Every structure is written in C-alpha cells, then in structure tokens.
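Posted in: Structural Biology > Protein-Ligand Complexes

Title: Requesting predicted complex, glutathione in pocket

I'd be grateful if someone could produce the 3D structure tokens for the following input. Sequence and ligand are given below.
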Amino acid sequence: MSDQLVLTSFKICPYVQRAVIALKEKQVPYTIQYINPYEDNPDWFKAISPLGKVPVLQVNDRPVFESAIILEYLEEVYAPHLHPGDPLTKASHRAWMEFSSDLLVRQFQMNNAPDAEAFEKAKTAFSDGLKRLGEQLNPTGPYFTGTELSLVDVACAPLLMRLDFMERHFKINVETAERIQQWSEALLARSSVKQSVVPEFEDLMLEFLKKRGSFFMKA
Ligand SMILES: N[C@@H](CCC(=O)N[C@@H](CS)C(=O)NCC(=O)O)C(=O)O
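-- Reply #1 --
Done. Output follows.
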C-alpha cells in the first residue's frame, strides 16, 4: 500500500508552497489541511511541530518538519529526481536552497516593514541577497542550472512569486537582472507553481499585510 501523506499548511506560507510544488512535480498524491499558525496554533499541531511552524508533512502519521528537510525526503523517495548526481554540485544546490530560506526571511521583513525607513533597510538586505543568488544562475536559463528544473528552483519559486506580487500591487521596484526576470517568468508559468497556491492567494496576502501593519497598506 502506498504511503499516506498529509501536509499541514498555512494558505500563504512560502515554505509550505515549496513542498506543494515538489509534490506536484513528482505527482505524489497527498491531502492538505490548513491552519493559521500566527493566530491559532492548536494543541494537535504543537504535538507534531516542535517549532510550532508549518509545513509539517505526516507520512503515515510520522511527522517531518522544516521545508528543506521535507524537500529532501520527497527527493529521496519520489522521481523525477531534481538534485544533481554529483555530490559537490548537490552540496552547492543545497547551500543555495539554504540561502533562499534566509532570503525569504529578508523578503518577509521587506514586505511587512512598518514604515518607509524599515522598508528601505530591508529592501537593501533583500536586493543584495537576490543579486548574489542571481549570479549563481546558469547564464542561458531559464532555470537555475539551465533547461532542467532542479530542487533549487522549487525552493526559490515562492520567493519569486511574492516578488512579482509585490511589484504588481505596490511597484516596490526591487532591481532585478534580466536573467532573474527570465527565471521568474519560467517558474511562475509552470503548472506546479501556478497550482501551488489557493485561488484566493492574492487577497489573503493583502489581508495579511494589513494585519501585520505593513506600511504599504497604510498609504
Ligand atoms: N524554517 C522553516 C520556516 C517555516 C515558517 O516560518 N513558517 C511560518 C509560516 S510561513 C510559521 O509557521 N510561523 C509560525 C510562527 O512563527 O509562530 C521552514 O523552512 O519550514
């Protein structure tokens, strides 16, 4: 019998989104349940999530937490394999995945900045990191390593989706190289990425920014 996979999510969480993209790319059947860890962290969830954070993937009731670890688990168990075979290249991909997790934190600080000054500071930290990540991209593209999707792409797609969202809604104008633009367009056009968020995603993002007191919603 195949494994039963249950993913616990928060509808606008970029870390959960990584897991969803990987599940869809690998065509793995799963069920998804939603909580809001910021407003209501139920006891059953605390029991399976030592850090109180989503995502948690339960595999036959055994919880796996932390998005990067979930991606690595899915990668080991399900094809197509998205990591390179060469150990050193794989280590480098893992390192850039880790870097993208840090970049997600910087992006969160930028998007939720309470005032213009905090925004500018966070924007500089985010832009510097994005530039550094952009320098790692294969020059031809469209993906991180070229024509084939890799796990680094999966890890970074939620970040690029939020950047696109903020630019369309608030014209935040983070300076991006043409190659990052090409990467973003290729990833956001993939069906796994398009289907990795709920239909009301953008409304929920706006609502969240408002609740967090983001200065974009005060204008
Ligand atoms: N390092 C974690 C970060 C996950 C994370 O920050 N999740 C957020 C939602 S997007 C969360 O559950 N936050 C609840 C809290 O901080 O209390 C991962 O990669 O899975």
